[in-house]
Each structure stands twice: as C-alpha cells, then as structure tokens.
Amino acid sequence: MLRRQARLRREYLYRKTAEIKHKSLQEKKERIKKSLEDHTTIHGDLRRDALELQKKLKWSDDGPKQASTTSGINGGANTANSQDDEYLYAGSQDPKILITTSHNPSNTLKQFVKELRLLIPNAQRVNRGNYDIKQLVHASRANDATDLIIIHETRGVPTNLVICHLPYGPTAKFNISDIVTRHEIPDIGTMPEAKPHLIFHNFKTKLGERTMSILKYLFPVPKEDSKRAITFANHDDFISFRHHSYRYVDNSLELTELGPRFQLKLYHILLGTIDEEKAADTEWVYRPYMNTTAKRRFMSDEDGWKEDEIE
C-alpha cells in the first residue's frame, strides 16, 4: 500500500511539473503574439527567446484546455485549466470532511470544533488523542476523506486553521481571529441541515481564486430551494465569515444569523499534504517583508500575486 501511494504521488508530481512547464511556455508565446499584433516592444525577459517562440507560434496548439463543468449553485465541478487539477472532480460527489484539533484541546476549542462540524455538511469530528500528523493523514485517506481540517489554539483561544485537501494537497493555513460562537449571539436561530449556498466577495486575483477554490469545495452543491447562505467576504485580505438563513416576508428578504462568526487570514499554501511539509513546494507564503506593503492587497488587487513571491 505504501509503495503504491508513493508511486501515485510521483506520477502526480511528474504530470503537474510537465503541465506547469507547458503552461509557462504557452503564456510566453501569447505575450509574443500580442506584442507582434499590437506592434509594441517585446518585454526584456522575452527578447532572448523571441525568435524561437515566434517560430513555435506557427504550429503550436492553444495550450491546456479548460475541463468541462457541471452546473450548480456552487459552480459544480471546477473549471480546471488542466486534466490534473486537484479540484477537477469537485462537485461530482459530496465532499467528506474530517475535523480534528491539536493535542489536549481546551473547552473553548472543543466548542468551536463542534460548531464547525455542524456548519459543514458531511463533516465528522475525530478525537486527536495521541495521533501524529502522518497517522491522521493516513487515516483520512483510508476513509476516503476529501479534506482534513486541523484547528490549533494558543492559551485556550483558537488561532490557526489548516485545510489539507486529499489525497495530494494543496494545504492552506489560516490565522483565525475575532471568533464569536453561537452561544454568544443573542436570539440565535437553530442550525439547519440543508446544504448552504455560498457567497464569495472580492476574490479577484489568482491567489484569491485559489483561496476561493480551497474554501468552496469544502461544501457540497446545494439544492435551489435551500434557505441557508454562507458568506466569505474579503476585505484587506481578511476573510470575514458569516452564516445566515433567509426567507421572504411580504416581498422583503429577512435574514437570521446562525453563527458562528470569525475572520481568516491566509498565510501559507503548500503544494502537498500537511505531512509532507518539509518536502513539498510552497505555492505562496506571506513573508515578514510584506508587512510594509500597507496599500497592497494580495486577493483583491490585480497586481497582488507576483512571481517573486511564489517558490
């Protein structure tokens, strides 16, 4: 079993690497083609290979095609840029989520995990016990889980959320802040079991779309008559989470908050599972020098995801 898993992982990484090279070459050819058509100066980083790329334009194809999609409220299957996208088949079947905590969780963390389990359909809570990360990932794969969520705390306050997509990644790490649990909200409504509609606001860059995919495919595709809505609103790279049910009263929309509330701050995306953190590549990471970029937004600004910040 371990040899088969290692072989499948190597094959996946090979296909992924070949695909990235093909996509990078295609982007360069598109830039050359645009410069020739617009009669503009070719960018400096393309001048050395401009003649060779221009020759390839005569017989090259259009690059990786977009995969077919299935319609749905949450978008159905992902419109992948390749046949080897991690979320290619997302939406074709309901996800299966396993949620666990750090070792020796506090009562506050247990309460938050309980509410998170009720929040996500098809989610199951797993007691951490003495299991390490590798054992958790192995158990999740053995049970055909699509995602593993691990929540950590600092001095009894949940501060970190890790979403590990299975079987090959990616792994996204978020800081959690401003948590308001359901029992702290007055006149809270009951938690429905219907699959929720998802609302994403201000995820405009490639990094924003990547983050949106990681969060979106934790939830199954809802029915059209579902009266439950979950909102992920990005403001200054802080993702505000809100959960409501709604109904129409006298042609007006009435919202009822269901809770909980919290904010997420993305700081790391790993191209692999969490047990491969030392060996896997980093897709994006928030570094200390980025703290000086006060006016820069990485999820809502079109210039927010630069090549020099991707390892």
First and last CA, distance:
31 Å
Arithmetic mean pLDDT = 83
Q: How many helices?
A: 5
CATH T-level fold name of the largest domain: Rossmann fold
CATH class of the largest domain: Alpha Beta
Question: How would you describe what is shown here?
Answer:
The chain has two domains: 2-56, no CATH class; 97-309, Brix domain (Rossmann fold, 3-Layer(aba) Sandwich). The longest helix is centred in the N-terminal third of the chain and has 37 residues, at 2-38. Strands 1, 2, 3, 4, 5, 6, 7, 8, 9, 10 and 11 form an eleven-stranded mixed beta sheet that branches. Residues 64-81 and 303-311 have low confidence and may be disordered. Helix 1 packs across helix 2 (50-56). Strand 6, helix 5 and strand 7 form a beta-alpha-beta unit. The chain has five helices and eleven strands; from the N terminus they run H-H-E-H-E-H-E-E-E-E-H-E-E-E-E-E. It has helices at 2-38, 50-56, 107-119, 133-142, 206-216, and strands at 97-101, 123-125, 147-154, 157-165, 171-180, 197-201, 228-235, 238-249, 252-257, 261-271, 281-285. It is α+β, with helices and mostly antiparallel strands.
